[in-house]
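Quick question: what would this complex look like in 3D?
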Amino acid sequence: MREGLEVFLTFLRLGLVSFGGGMANLPEMARILIAKGWVTPQQFADGFAMGQFVPGPNMLAVVFYGLSAGGLVGAVAAALGMFLPGAMGAILLVHGWEWMARARWSRALRKALVPVSMGLSASMLLVLIQLGIDSLWGFALMGLATWLIYRGANILAVMVAGGALGLGISWLR
Amino acid sequence: MRVPLPQLFTAFLYVGLTAFGGGGNAYIYQLMVVRRGWLSEREFLETTALCRVLPGPVFANLAAHLGAKLGGVLGGLVALVGVLLPGSSLMLLLSLAYFHFGAQPGSSAEGALSGVAAAAIGLVLATLLRQVRVGLDSLKAILLALAVFVTYGLLHWSLPLVLLLAVPVGVVLYWREAE
């Protein structure tokens, strides 16, 4: 139970500072979870990949990390910690929204958050490449997927094809 | 507009079941605005902007906010559970299998997973590339994004510290434009 609480508090902290989309804090998350010994770098990358594979928010990877950290209790604790702060804010702000939209600071904030979140995304990309890609094949596959998705290909189809190609490559080697 | 809770739950459960590969906002948009007409176009756009400012995954925030708009606080919780339930159940099953059978280096499971990982990173890169044209439309935007990337991505400063410095600077930079 104490472990569950620690998992909850860790993900609550990560959830609270994840401005600009939940994945913005992925580098921070990788650093913290690996330092605590809850996942290995390889497991972190694997969990992220599986998170892209299931329907719903990409950040469902936290279920994987929570499970690794503290079993079933950990899985639930991680999901609650990650999703509750923003959702509660979003629910409570149903009424404050009209006022916020009129305030000048909130319009400046919304404009400013665009480049900030792009800097965060680029940082996330760097960490993912460091953790998840360890061969020339991986780079080639990433490039191909990037090109296909950029051109508007179906995302799930690209993920499945990536899995099939990865399987084929591991058999060939 | 007020929507009964069971109807709200099944609608968001449907989104949670079908929203594969990120971009959940697009699925919510299709269902709430185009198909059912529960919200106007304008309402949806404003709401999305708000949910981007809040911490946490935009998709989950949007679901909770729209649920609350259509069904009160309980509606918000129902919507959140609806979008999370299918994916998190599947994720839990996959994770249990992963830790039970293990993905040994060199095994076919690990091979398939590293292929998915490469494709998933491609998804992140493609999304970033698409945003570049719209998001980095001025010198100050480029400098701000670069400053965040260098401090957070390369120098590994902590995220709260980076945001504490970058967000106020950004607000000042955009203050004139926000009139």
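Answer marked as accepted. Chain B has a mean pLDDT of 85.
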